[in-house]
Amino acid sequence: MGDSAQGKKIGKAYIETTAIDEFTFNQQYQSFLRAGYAHDVSSNQIVGNYQNYVQDQEDETLTGKKRKRDKGPKPLPVLPDDDDEDLGPWALYKDDPVEPPKPPVAAPAVIPPSIANAAHKETTSSSSTTAAAPANEFIIEPEAEEDKWEKRNERKQNFVLPPRPGRGSHAMEARSIFHGDHEVDFQGRSWTTCPQGIHADDGDHECYLPKKNVKRLTGHTKGVQGIEFFPQTGHLLLSASLDGTCKVWDVAQESYHPLRTYLGHSEGIRSAQLNATGERFLSSGFDRYIRLWDTETGQAVSTFSNRKMSYSVRFYPHDNNIFLAASSDNKIYQWDARTGAVAQEYHYHLQACTSLLFIDQGRKFVSTSDDKKLLVWEYDIPVPVQYIQEPDMHAIPALANHTTEDYFVGQSMDNKIVVYSNNERVKLNRKKVFKGHNNTGYACQMDVSPNGKYLISGDGLGSLYIWDWKTGKIFRKFAAHDQGPCMGAIWHPLHASRIATCGWDGLIKIWE
Fold first, then answer.
1. Which of 32, 44, 242, 281 is the one with CA 20 to 30 A from 71?
2. Which region among 56-60, 131-135, 377-381, 473-477 has the lowest average model confidence (pLDDT)?
3. Distance from CA of residue 357 to its chain's centroid?
């Protein structure tokens, strides 16, 4: 047989010329690559794996669809519309079989009718929560659509946000431990009463630089996030730690021992603040709950949560029943502790709000965010009155007022402390900048001496810095804390040279 009959010979095969359109050729070519067989249009025969062809014909006859073959890796999980329990990367694939539910445990054979009817009523009337919320716990659950959107949005920030509590969950049971001998003395005065001989002077005294560390306060098992002296007198010290506890220390006596421990958070505490009298204080934890505590009795007066992470909580200076919370959903919430409701929302930031500060005698407040903006608000008006953003501006996660309240300072993330003047309008003072410390990545607490001459701050390397307010020069530097940053530094309101610092080494140090 020659080449003219069967086409040109190449090796042991022949190349035949056949008339076939491009679509049919591509279809049979893809079929051969996918299933291993193709249809020869010239001879009307099956070429390749004939068994796969027979199997596909049988499946198509029974189901009306061709048998699907494994084409590679499975697609990503598809989230259902009613995603009440978002499992994230642990969700099942779309085509994975669902395991049948396990059969329920058999009930007892005989149940009295009265008990059965009561159980039926309780089951039908119960909501998604299994336990009733305490009377003083105010939890605002987001709507289904809002909750679904928040879960998807927080999935992008799961490396910085704490776990989101489930719907219907409640805060842990709050309790406190008193470490002193007696909660009242022989005259019936509470342990929080200021000792005789200590009187407030509104900062009208000279201040001097401390020389050395005189006391180390131990008791927290993890890092201490923030500290605060009692208003005006400073005879007690409040500390908030990442171990989920707050402590009140006696700093009027030379013993410096803890007087009461407050346990009410299952995760670390991010922010805490005393009210103007020191009778109550707020604590905000990484468990996404805000607690209002009675300082004297150690009772958790109220618990608040809207399932958002609150990075900063601040009392309204003119009403201790109202406080603000800077949250992770780019909003600032104004809570009313009497009703447990959100009275106002301030929404203008584009990223999580990190710090709050009241200025102008409480008529205004300042908010900062990770979006590198600083907004000025009038209290109870949800529209900012001033919008500050510069091309060279960095995030400011911590704020502090000057003693005169004519200025306030911010911990900028470019290793600087910036100063804003607070006259008719808030304005950046470019001529007054404090440098020399390394604070990048840490919201280090700052403070100004009672006479307004010195500025103190910790840094990320555990050092304590003291600047001259007028010239901006570093007066003194101390190696305050080891194994982490110095997160807080505050000046005593009465003692001329007493400073308290805290760090992630779990220590609180007193300097004089």
1. 44
2. 131-135
3. 19
Interhelix angle 22-35/50-63, rounded to 10 degrees, is: 100
Find the helix or strand (DSSP H, E) in which 46 lies. strand 45-48
**CA 463 – CA 506 distance, rounded (Å):** 15
**Cα Rg of the chain (Å, integer):** 34
Distance of CA 280 to the CA centre of its chain: 23
Q: Give me the half-sphere count of Cα atoms (radius 13 Å) on the Cβ side of residue 151.
A: 21
- Is the backbone of residue 497 left (phi > 0), alpha (psi -120 to 50) or beta? alpha
Which residues lie across from 403 on neighbouring strands?
A: none
Instruction: State the CB neighbour count (10 A cutoff) for residue 238.
Output: 22
Question: Quick one: residue 309, left, alpha or beta (phi over 0 = left, psi -120 to 50 = alpha)?
Answer: beta
Comparing 100 with 334, the larger pLDDT belongs to 334
- How many Cα atoms are found within 13 Å in the side-chain-facing hemisphere of 56? 16
- Tell me the CA distances in angstroms from 255 to 252, 258, 261, 407, 433, one per residue in order: 8, 9, 17, 36, 38
Collapse the DSSP code of 53 into the 3-class scheme (helix H, G, I; strand E, B; otherwise coil) and give the result.
Answer: helix
CA distances to 252, 349, 364 from 384, in Å: 42, 10, 10
Closest CA relative to residue 394, chosen from 377, 376, 369, 419:
369
pTM above 0.85, yes or no: no
